Amino acid sequence: MCKNKIQFQPGLSLQSFLSQFGTEDQCRNALVRWRWPQGFVCPSCGHTKYCLLKTRDLFQCNRCRTQISITAGTIFASTKLSLTTWFLSIYLITQSKVSVSALSLKRTIGVSYNTALLIKHKIQQVMKERDDSKPLDAAYIQVDDAYWGGKKRNGKRGRGATGKIPFVAAVSIGDKGRPLAIRFSQVSAFSKKSIKAWADKHLAPKRNVAPMASNASLLLKSVVMNILQ
Ligand SMILES: [Zn+2]
């Protein structure tokens, strides 16, 4: 396999991930920061003053009293799992250069097999290819590689015993470094030729494309933000 810039970029180390997202408070704060980068805005009336109902993890608007759960509208919402479990699962799945099975997820994060399957399925829903016809278009696009195990869409197993399918993950970045869109695309291999064919199809011409190294937690953020939309 040829060495290429995309595959050999540094990822977010587990140590660095844990120092940023290792506690429930850190994950909650990140979620709040990503959801309201300019500070809280009430979705009902636009007011920016709130009080935090700490015991129930709710923001309450000071004007209209609307209550907003921090995880409302996310895949986190309907489960009783901690945010640290979700963040770690997203980290493991998006940062791994090999496919992560539900069984290894179960062992690593310490949940039941059924829970691991549910987590993987929900994250997979977010990572599914979206509207593929429109190329990503922004001043900056950052790319990373990933593998996804399991069945191909036509129902046949992926190649090899483990069924690894190579993916390219691309995030378009808007002003202030905010992720605008995320795209996971299946490629035939991580070869120069197939990456170029992928770029021709999925990226608007003459864009600045960089490996995701400059902000390695971006992929994690993108998956979480996509969940929020
Ligand atoms: Zn309000």
Describe the structure.
This protein has helices at 14-21, 24-35, 83-95, 102-109, 113-127, 192-202, 218-228, and strands spanning 50-53, 58-61, 67-69, 140-148, 165-173, 179-186, 208-211. The protein has 229 residues and is of the alpha+beta class. It has one domain (14-41, 73-228). The strands form two sheets. It has a four-stranded mixed beta sheet with strand order 6-5-4-7, with helices on one face. A three-stranded antiparallel beta sheet has the order 1-2-3, with no helix packed on it. Helix 3 packs across helix 7 (218-228). The protein is globular and about 55 Å long.
Question: Would you kindly provide a brief summary of this structure?
Answer:
By secondary structure, the chain is of the alpha+beta class. It contains seven helices and seven strands, in the order H-H-E-E-E-H-H-H-E-E-E-H-E-H.
What is the global morphology?
globular
β-strand percent reads 15-25%
Q: What structural category arises from helix and sheet content?
A: alpha+beta
Strand arrangement, major sheet: 6-5-4-7
Q: Considering DSSP H and I runs of 4 or more, what fraction of the residues is helical?
A: 25-40%
Compute the average pLDDT: 75
Q: Please, how many helices?
A: 7
Unreliable residue runs: 150-162
What is the total domain count?
1
* Secondary-structure element pattern, one letter each: HHEEEHHHEEEHEH
Distance between the termini: 37 Å
Q: If you compute it from the alpha carbons, what radius of gyration comes out, rounded to the nearest whole angstrom?
A: 19 Å
Q: Outline the biggest β-sheet.
A: 4 strands, mixed
Bound molecules: zinc ion
Number of strands: 7
